[in-house]
Specification:
The structure is a homodimer of 275-residue chains. Chain A is an alpha/beta fold. Chain A has helices at 58-70, 88-93, 109-118, 120-123, 138-143, 169-178, 196-207, 257-262, 268-271; strands spanning 3-8, 13-27, 32-38, 42-47, 50-54, 78-83, 101-106, 131-135, 149-155, 179-188, 212-219, 227-234. At the A-B interface, strand 2, helix 8 and helix 9 of A face strand 2, helix 8 and helix 9 of B. Chains A, B: This is Polyamine aminopropyltransferase.
Chain lengths: 275, 275
């Protein structure tokens, strides 16, 4: 018997993966959580029926949400991640030699537990001495900090359920206050093919708050449409002004100095969304 | 009743699209041909169970297989396409002001017929006076021409069935001879995530024949993994040496001067395939 997991990515399109086993399913306080083994992408974490991360392609998302900002900021010592309970962004952050502390604020402790148990390749850095893991509401945490972080990454789920507030202008204003005077934020902002309105709205909101706002792209096979966007708000540093020789050297599978620049080369239909 | 079209893109992963109707199915001399209406991507052409093109995302593939070479060559007067019976590459080629003649050599006349009937937005240029449409074997056509074309685009189906010979080193040598002394070839070369071996092999083969060989990428939602590669072999001109101000201006939805450069910024795991 062949077993396939099918995710409806929109009402009208889906991805379907052959699976070998379902390792874990759970209804947490916040969402439905599942861990399954797929043949194409390896082990996969699914929240509320949406693929969050897989062993085979997680490197793209986790490197790209992290290293662009880490290499734009000249001294990214104090970095935080909202969401991202799988630990992948944290794993990338502590690769950067300048980072002294990385704080993870995840609202759903069960995501952290499941990731540590079933996805150790991704969650491996959560016990690092530089890492502070907090099971808290990210919106509340941000509101309680001022002039504190160098970089804040919004590593959220899709803008439904617990993550809706992470796509709001009020939240971006709160992030602005929680950042130091030269701080940078990056948020994952969905697919240019399927979420055009969301990208336009978020870019406009962040542009109204931060002096420098930039959108960049990466290719992630298990995410809807395969093309994903990230929106950066920066108080001082422009990611396009970074010199190639200033990009820190550490092992990555997707990110490099050429990708740092190339990811900002937007196709016309994407650039149109930002006008 | 909901109807869904599911394509197994590999043995272990597929894309599934809600459809409203099947407009046409046919067994041609060379392959199974279908035209269906999908809700997410609009009308879709399917050959041997593989999505070839859709109304909503065809612009990416057709612009990117064409304009990178057209803007690398300073005088692309005589351009040919092997395969590409839907006419999308031809439509893009004749946008370039320098092109005097565009030749389409498609082995399966039924693809041209179905595209003209069901996909007029894509096939619209096939009756242009600059365009010469030939229902012939592309391999034979190339073998019969020498020092003739400025640009040859290999707009093939997947490397199974009738297209196998279009991925062979002998064919690339034949293309080299059919090109003028400063000619350029571009071939579609599948997904870096799913077809790593093919990309490595083709890049090595083309590098052994052409002095300049470059791989570039584009994001195409309906193609396996969503990330697609194109391999360019060039006798004289380097696509990375093109000056932004020399890129011809005409309407496109994906390609632009920034994308021309950014598409060559290869993630590490892709660059590794070319070593």
């Amino acid at each position: 018997m062949e077993l396939w997991y099918t995710e409806k990515q929109t009402e009208n399109v889906g991805i379907t993966c052959k699976i070998t086993q379902t390792l874990h399913t759970e209804k947490t306080e916040f969402q439905d959580l599942a861990v399954i083994d797929t043949l194409q992408f390896g082990r996969m974490l699914v929240l509320d029926g949406m693929v969050q991360t897989t062993i085979k392609d997680e490197f793209v998302y986790h490197e790209m949400i992290s290293h662009v900002a880490l290499n734009t900021h000249p001294n990214p010592a104090n970095v935080m991640v909202i969401g991202g309970g799988d630990g992948g962004a944290i794993r990338e952050i502590i690769k950067h030699p300048g980072v002294q502390k990385a704080t993870l604020v995840e609202i759903d402790g069960k995501v952290i537990e499941a990731s540590k148990k079933y996805l150790p390749e991704i969650a491996c850095a959560l016990d690092d001495p530089k890492v502070d893991v907090r099971v808290e509401d990210g919106i509340k945490h941000i509101a309680e900090h001022e002039n504190h972080y160098d970089i804040i990454l919004v590593d959220s789920t899709e803008p439904v359920g617990p993550a809706v507030g992470l796509f709001a202008a009020d939240f971006y204003r709160s992030i602005y206050r929680a950042l130091k005077e030269d701080g940078i934020m990056v948020a994952q902002t969905e697919s240019p093919f399927f979420n055009a309105d969301l990208i336009s709205r978020v870019f406009k909101d962040i542009s109204a708050i931060f002096p420098i706002t930039r959108l960049y792209l990466a290719s992630i096979p298990t995410y809807p449409s395969g093309l994903w966007s990230f929106t950066m708000g920066s108080k001082k540093y422009d990611p396009l002004a970074v010199k190639e020789e200033d990009i820190a050297q550490y092992p990555t599978k997707y990110y490099n100095a050429a990708v740092h620049k190339g990811a900002f080369a937007l196709p016309n239909f994407v650039a149109e969304l930002l006008k």
